[in-house]
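Hey,
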Amino acid sequence: MVITGLFIGAGCVFRPSDPLLLECGFPYLILPPLMAALRYGFGYGIASALPIAGAAWVWVARTDALPANTVHLALGSLTTLLLAGQFADVWRRRWDASSSAIHYSQKRLDEFSPRYYALQASHDRLEQKLAGTTQSLRTGVETIRKSLVLEFDEANIAATGRRILDLFSTFCSVQVATVLEVKNGEEILWPAAAHLGTGVAIAPDDPMVDTAFRSRKMLSVQDGTLDRADLRDQRADILAVVPIMDSYDSLWALLVVQEMPFIAFHQDNLTLMTILGGYIGDQLTGAIEQVKAVDASEADFRLQLRHSLRDLVRHQLPVSLVRVDVDGTLADPRVIDMVSRSHRGLDVLYSTKNRTGDRVLAVLLPLTEAMGTEAYCARIEAMIRQRVGKSLGEAGVRFEALQLSGADTVDDIVESLRRSKVEHVESPPLAAPVPA
């Protein structure tokens, strides 16, 4: 309206005889309505043209003069305003649709951004946690049993030192370490048997190594023992000393850890290193015992059972035993084979006979609580029913699950297996676990 009024006023000032500029070669008064229609739409263009139409009506009424092309000029101007207004309206609808889409996208972005940064922070913390978290104990022990299968002539630290370091590097994030061989559990042999990475040379009279050797226990800079004056100077060179010791407390070697990631240096990881050191010691001892033993299977079962009981007492790691009594007159050979093949990688299977001559299978389940033992037995029973089509009683077998305690001994457990008798019971239930 203001622009339209300015145009009309300018015409009255500069061309009093033709204030509407109708006699000019170009219809200048169409510009204000055209700009309004292009900018705001058809309605605004018509509103801007109404003052011009009113002024023209007043001018014609006063002067009674109407140029010949006025009607065509008015119709052409109206058509131009209509086209410009329609274009503006279409453009504005598209603008509004785009603005709504952008507003919705911005709203979603505002909602997503905090979640993204929270997820990113959580991912960073997860990466740090994974870097400081070692692999599971079960995985570590299974790997030791598979990768550290030794012959009699390999049952020494000189032959296996590097393999031992590789295991600790994989499962405990050890970066720089040294293996010191111990002769007959009484003397540390120098120089070191194997090295991982490049670290500071270990002195033969190192007080931290000497303390761990005499105590037969894992020692680290987190230990309160290091407050003693004679150990304070060793903190920069040695982080921990881990004994490689079997279930008979025979010391094979010392693992001296000099470097590892800070986030991996925590008590859980140190405990894992101690447990793995015990399993490595048993692998070394087992390679020798199996050669000397009359029954290699029983020797291995006794060694693993002894180790599991020791871990139960020292580290509160659960251990279970499943005893399977087999009736020689009813037993289906497929069932016995099924039980023999169904134990897990960490489990130990031992076969013997009781005093009546019937077969007894014992499955040692390390790191397994009562619930896991019951699930194992239920899985075997379901497998027998599915594949053989018989209940346990019909198949001539009887399961008994036992949760071992610190009061149990290896000799008592082995002797109890030989005293067991088959009871002909139709689908007998599992025995209640003995509380640890």
